[in-house]
């Protein structure tokens, strides 16, 4: 089910679902291991925390779809948890690899501010999550929440850093900011078009 009726759009949805438990566990685990990595100065532990975060993020979404437990509350919980994980892990990377501070600043501002507002914009329409934003606007969805966009928007920067390509990582982060700014303007137009502004 991708669309929700107006009553369901106002309901928070069941909170005790398997995907939400996975989101909670992966968030606590990734943040805990990330903090341990910062305290111990371990790049290896930081890599482990990223793996926990990414696998958990894929698993909670897959489980939600597989079990038919997608809810708007679950989508918001996932979005908030992603920001908690990313903030700790990115700060950890800065502590462990100070040379990426500029890249991290650009990435964090884009992800924690622009992407958060864009990701929560789905709440203005009767869709279950940003994964279904193509029902509102296909271009905005393709640039932000399609499988390719999700990988490119986050993993592109991290992989470039992992391979020591800091200038490339900065270029990717700046490109992501440009996409997010364009998408934000497009969402504002959609809100006005649909009388939701």
Short structural summary:
GO terms for molecular function: phosphotransferase activity, for other substituted phosphate groups. This protein is mainly α. It is 76% helix and 0% strand.
Counting structural domains, the number is 2
Biggest pleated sheet: none
What are the low-pLDDT stretches, counting only 5+ consecutive residues below 50?
none
Any idea what the shape is? Answer: globular
Structural class designation: mainly alpha
Q: How many E strands?
A: 0
Helix fraction, binned, reads over 70%
The number of helical elements comes to 8
Q: How confident overall, as mean pLDDT?
A: 90
Alpha carbon gyration radius:
17 Å
List SSEs in N-to-C order.
HHHHHHHH
Distance between the termini: 26 Å
State which percent range the strand residues make up.
under 5%
Protein name: CDP-alcohol phosphatidyltransferase
GO cellular component, one term: membrane
Family: Belongs to the CDP-alcohol phosphatidyltransferase class-I family.
Organism: Micromonospora inaquosa
Keywords summarizing the entry:
197 residues, mainly alpha, 8 helices, 76% helix, globular
Strand-helix topology:
Elements: H1 6-10, H2 18-40, H3 43-67, H4 72-96, H5 101-120, H6 138-144, H7 147-162, H8 166-193
Describe the structure.
With 197 residues, this protein is an all-alpha fold. The protein folds into 2 domains: 1-96; 99-197. It contains 8 helices and no strands. It has helices at residues 6-10, 18-40, 43-67, 72-96, 101-120, 138-144, 147-162, 166-193. Helix 2 (18-40) runs parallel beside helix 4. The two termini are 26 Å apart. The relative contact order is 0.12.
